[in-house]
Write a structure and sequence with these properties.
Structural class: alpha/beta
CATH topology of the largest domain: Quinone Oxidoreductase, Chain A, domain 1
Radius of gyration: 20 Å
Distance between the termini: 24 Å
CATH architecture of the largest domain: Alpha-Beta Complex
Helix content: 25-40%
Strand content: 25-35%
Number of domains: 2
CATH class of the largest domain: Alpha Beta
Length: 357
C-alpha cells in the first residue's frame, strides 16, 4: 500500500500538557488489526481527564483521542467484517468478542491485554491522521449509505455511552426520568431516553447556553438548575422523586443530587467520570432501596445506533458547534476546555477533510 511515512498526532506529553507532534504512521501488528485514515474526529471530556491526570492508566507518549470516523486503509489477514475503502465508525473500546465478559456483552471489561478503553488512553488513538484499531471486527462498524461523517461521529463513544445508559436504566412509558447534565453526553442521553417514550423527562443543567440548547431543540423537556432540582422533581412527580435518574455530569455534588432526587426503589444510573471519590452515605439513604448501575460504556450497540441515525430517529449533528483542522487542534482544545463561544462539541478534520457523504 502506498502511504506516507509520518503524520501529525496530538500527544499526551505529561500531566497538564498535550502537544501536536510528528509521528510515524502506524502499521498493523496483529492479524485482527485495521489501519483507518481519520476523516473526522472530536474532543471528549475524557481527553481532558487524561490531560489533568485523572486517568492513572493513561500512558504518557500516546496519541490521544477516541471519537472518530474514517476510511479503512488496510486490514490484517484475520479481519472479515470490513475491507479497505469502507467508511467506518471507531468504537471507543477495543474488545476481543470471545472472553467471558465479551460473551456476556460487557465489552468494557474485555480480558484481552488491549481490551476496554485503550484507544487514546493506553494505546495510540485517533486525534491523528491515521489510527491502528485492534480487534477490528468488533471495533469498527460500517457507516450506512447516506449517513455523513458528521452524523456518525459520536456513535463509537458518547452515543454508545448514552444508548447503553438508557438501555440498562429499565425505563418504562409511565416513568419520569431525570438526566443530570446537559453536556454532549447528557444531550445524547436525552435523545436515547426519548426513544423509550417515558411520560416525562427532566434535565438538570446549570450552564445557561446548554439550558438554552435543550429548550430550543427539545421544547417538551423540562429544564431546571441544580439549586432548584430536588424541589422541582418533587413537584413534578407523584411518589417522592424520579423513577429513573441518569447522572452524566460528574460534578462535586451531582452524585448526591442523583440519589436525593430518586424516589424509593428507583434506578440510579451513573455514567459520569468523576475527578475524585464519591461518598455513599448509607445511613442517609436507608429505606430508599435504590438500585445503582455504574461503570463505563459497553459499546455493543453501534450497529443499531447507526440504523437509528439512518432512519432519522437520532440526530446529533446540532452538537457540532465548531470545526477545526487537525493542524489547529490546540485552539480547538482551548475553546472546548474553557467552554468558550457557546461550544458543545468540536469536529476535528483530518488533513483531507471529511468525505461529506
Amino acid at each position: 500500500m502506498d502511504k506516507k511515512d509520518s503524520m501529525l498526532a496530538y500527544t499526551y506529553v505529561e500531566r497538564g500538557r498535550f502537544a501536536l507532534k510528528e509521528k510515524p504512521v502506524p502499521g498493523l501488528k496483529e492479524p485482527h488489526d485495521a489501519l483507518v485514515r481519520v476523516t473526522l474526529g472530536s474532543i471528549c471530556t475524557s481527553d481532558l481527564h487524561i490531560k489533568h491526570g485523572s486517568v492513572p492508566r493513561a500512558v504518557p507518549g500516546i496519541t490521544v483521542g477516541h471519537e472518530m470516523v474514517g476510511v479503512v486503509e488496510q486490514v490484517g489477514s484475520g479481519v472479515t467484517t470490513v475491507r479497505p475503502g469502507d467508511r467506518v465508525t471507531v468504537n471507543v473500546e477495543t474488545f476481543c468478542g470471545e472472553c467471558f465478559f465479551c460473551r456476556q456483552g460487557y465489552v468494557n471489561n474485555c480480558e484481552a491485554p488491549d481490551g476496554g478503553w485503550a484507544l487514546g488512553c493506553r494505546i495510540d488513538g485517533g486525534q491523528a491522521e491515521y489510527v491502528r484499531v485492534p480487534h477490528a471486527d468488533q471495533g469498527l462498524n460500517r457507516i450506512p449509505e447516506g449517513v455523513s461523517d458528521e452524523q456518525a461521529l459520536f456513535v463509537g463513544d458518547i452515543l454508545a455511552t448514552s444508548f447503553w445508559a438508557a438501555r440498562i436504566s429499565e425505563i418504562k412509558e409511565d416513568d419520569t426520568v431525570l438526566i443530570i447534565g446537559a453536556g454532549p453526553t447528557g444531550i445524547c442521553t436525552l435523545q436515547c431516553v426519548r426513544l423509550k417514550r417515558p411520560r416525562r423527562v427532566i434535565v438538570c443543567e446549570k450552564a445557561e447556553e446548554r439550558t438554552r440548547f435543550v429548550c430550543t431543540h427539545y421544547p417538551e423537556v423540562l429544564v431546571v438548575g441544580p439549586d432548584d432540582c430536588r424541589d422541582f422533581v418533587l413537584a413534578h412527580t407523584a411518589h417522592g422523586g424520579a423513577d429513573v435518574v441518569i447522572e452524566v455530569a460528574g460534578a462535586d455534588d451531582t452524585f448526591r443530587l442523583a440519589w436525593e432526587c430518586a424516589r424509593p426503589n428507583a434506578v440510579v444510573t451513573v455514567v459520569a467520570l468523576y475527578d475524585r471519590a464519591q461518598v455513599l452515605p448509607l445511613p442517609d439513604m436507608y429505606g430508599k432501596n435504590l438500585t445503582f448501575k455504574t461503570g463505563g460504556v459497553d459499546g455493543c450497540d453501534c450497529d443499531e445506533i447507526l440504523q437509528l441515525i439512518a432512519g432519522g430517529k437520532i440526530d446529533t449533528t446540532p452538537l457540532i458547534t465548531h470545526r477545526f483542522p487537525l493542524s489547529e487542534i490546540e485552539e480547538a482544545y482551548r475553546i472546548f476546555e474553557n467552554r468558550l463561544d457557546g461550544v458543545i462539541k468540536v469536529a476535528v478534520e483530518g488533513p483531507a477533510g471529511g468525505t461529506g457523504r
